[in-house]
Design brief:
Distance between the termini of chain A: 36 Å
Helix content of chain A: 25-40%
Number of strands of chain A: 7
Structural class of chain B: alpha+beta
Distance between the termini of chain B: 27 Å
Oligomer: heterodimer
Radius of gyration of chain B: 19 Å
Strand content of chain A: 15-25%
Chain lengths: 182, 238
C-alpha cells in the first residue's frame, strides 16, 4: 500500500475539532510519516478537494449550500468519511437554530440586524456568500458516513485512537467513554 | 412471605414474592439498564429500557413492573433487547434537543451515560428539533423542556415523597410536557414547596438548580431512595 491520502474539512463548526486535531502534538509526525495531507484547513493550502482521498475527517454540520456541495464532493472522492465531532455527528450547537421557527432567517437577522452597530444588513452576494439551508443537518443525514467520532471537541486521545485503528485495519469503531457526546 | 425461584441469564436465583424482576436481578448482580426507574418511587414501566425476554412468552416485559414468579426463565441481555434499547435512546435524542455540549448536566447525565452503555455513536433517526420553552420563573430552579425525556420521576417524587404534586404531564405524544400546577410558570405555583426533590430525581439537565456551573451541578439521585428507606424502614442508610 502506498502512502495514505489524508484530508480534513471544516463545514458548519467552530474549528474546535481541528484545534483538538492539532492537540495530537507529536503523533502528527507519526501521521506525516505514513500519510500525505492532501486537503485540510490546518495542514494544506489547496482550495480544490482532490480525487482519490483515502480518509477524510469532516468537522461541522451541513449548514449552508457551500457545505452541502462540499460534503457531496468529499463523499464522491473519499473512501472513508469520518464524522468528526458533535456538530458533524449530531448537528450540535450549529443545529440549535433548527428549534427556532424560520431559524435560518431568525439567526441571520439576530446576528446582522439586531446586533449590528452600523450598516445593518444581512449579507447577500450570489455565488460568494453561502446561503443558510432551512435546517443544519448532521453529515450522515446528507451522505453515508463510515466512522463516527463524538465529542465537543473530541479529545486528542480519541482522535488518535480512530486514526490508529484506521492505519491498522482500514476502518475504526469507538466504544465506551470514547463515544461520549459533549 | 414465600420465596420464588427463577432463572435470570442462566443464574438460578431466589427472590421474595413481592419483588420485581428488576429488584431480584440487581440483588443477584445482574445489571438491567433503566431510566424512568428510581429507587424509592413507584415503578411505571414508561421508558422500556428494562424490557426483558421471558421464555415461553413472545412479549417483552418491563422488569421494573413485572413481579417474580416460580420457574420464570428470563434473559436480560440478548441481541434483540440490545437493539431495542439502542433504538429507544436514539429516539429520545431525536425527540427533543439534547445538546450535551451546552447542557448543565454534561458528565452527570443518565441519558448521556445510557447512550454510552448502549453504544450509540450517532442517531439514525431524523431529529424533530421541537421548539421547547425554558421556565426560569422559580427563584431557585429552572426547567428546560428541550432536555426532558418524560420519565416522570419529578412527577412521582413530588407526589409520592414530598406530597405536593406540583408536577404533572400535559399533552400527548411528542407534544407532552411536564407542567407545574395548571401549566403555569413554575414561579407562580402555589403548591411547590421549593424542596428540590424534582431536581435530584431528574435524570438529565431538564430540571436544574439555577446559578450553578456545569461542574457544580451534580445531582444526588440517591436522595429520594434514602428518604423513602428512612421513612418506611427507619433505616438511615447513606
Amino acid at each position: 500500500m502506498g502512502r495514505l491520502k489524508f484530508a480534513t474539512v471544516w463545514l458548519g463548526g467552530c474549528s474546535g475539532c481541528h484545534m483538538s486535531f492539532l492537540d495530537l502534538d507529536e503523533f502528527l509526525f507519526d501521521i506525516a510519516a505514513v500519510a500525505d495531507v492532501v486537503f485540510s484547513p490546518v495542514g494544506c493550502d489547496l482550495k480544490e478537494y482532490p480525487h482519490g482521498v483515502d480518509v477524510c475527517l469532516v468537522e461541522g454540520a451541513v449548514n449552508n449550500d457551500e457545505n452541502l456541495e462540499a460534503i457531496r464532493q468529499v463523499r464522491e472522492r473519499t473512501k472513508l468519511v469520518v464524522s468528526f465531532g458533535d456538530c458533524a455527528v449530531t448537528g450540535n450547537v450549529t443545529a440549535m437554530r433548527n428549534m427556532i421557527p424560520d431559524g435560518a432567517n431568525m439567526v441571520a437577522s439576530r446576528s446582522y440586524l439586531e446586533n449590528a452597530d452600523r450598516n445593518a444588513m444581512v449579507p447577500v452576494e450570489a455565488g460568494i456568500v453561502p446561503t443558510l439551508l432551512p435546517a443544519a443537518l448532521p453529515v450522515h443525514a446528507v451522505v453515508p458516513v463510515d466512522v463516527y467520532i463524538p465529542g465537543c471537541p473530541p479529545p486528542a486521545d480519541r482522535i488518535k485512537a480512530v486514526i490508529q485503528q484506521i492505519l491498522e485495519k482500514g476502518t475504526a469503531h469507538l466504544e465506551g467513554r470514547n463515544i461520549k457526546f459533549g | 412471605m414465600s420465596v420464588k425461584t427463577l432463572t435470570i441469564d442462566g443464574k438460578l436465583i431466589s427472590a421474595h414474592e413481592d419483588q420485581t424482576v428488576l429488584q431480584a436481578a440487581r440483588e443477584a448482580g445482574v445489571s438491567i439498564p433503566t431510566l424512568c426507574h428510581l429507587d424509592g418511587l413507584t415503578s411505571v414501566g414508561a421508558c422500556r429500557m428494562c424490557l426483558v425476554e421471558i421464555e415461553g412468552s413472545g412479549r417483552l416485559l418491563p422488569s421494573c413492573t413485572t413481579k417474580v414468579a416460580d420457574d420464570l426463565s428470563i434473559r436480560t441481555d440478548t441481541d434483540r433487547l440490545r437493539g431495542y434499547r439502542k433504538m429507544i435512546i436514539e429516539l429520545l435524542f431525536a425527540e427533543r434537543n439534547h445538546i450535551c455540549a451546552v447542557c448543565v448536566a454534561n458528565e452527570a447525565c443518565e441519558l448521556q451515560d445510557m447512550a454510552i452503555r448502549v453504544g450509540m455513536d450517532h442517531v439514525r433517526f431524523d431529529y424533530l428539533s421541537p421548539s421547547c420553552a425554558v421556565d426560569i420563573s422559580h427563584k431557585r430552579y429552572g426547567v428546560d423542556h428541550s432536555r426532558c425525556i418524560l420519565c416522570t420521576r419529578c412527577v412521582r417524587a413530588c407526589d409520592e415523597v414530598e406530597g405536593a404534586h406540583t408536577w404533572d404531564i400535559a399533552g400527548r405524544g411528542t407534544s407532552a410536557r411536564v407542567i407545574t400546577d395548571m401549566a403555569q410558570p413554575w414561579g407562580t405555583s402555589d403548591t411547590c414547596t421549593s424542596c428540590g426533590k424534582c431536581v435530584q430525581a431528574c435524570p438529565t439537565g431538564a430540571i436544574f438548580a439555577k446559578g450553578m456551573t456545569v461542574a457544580e451541578s451534580r445531582k444526588d439521585r440517591g436522595e429520594i431512595g434514602f428518604l423513602v428507606t428512612a421513612r418506611e424502614k427507619k433505616q438511615w442508610v447513606v
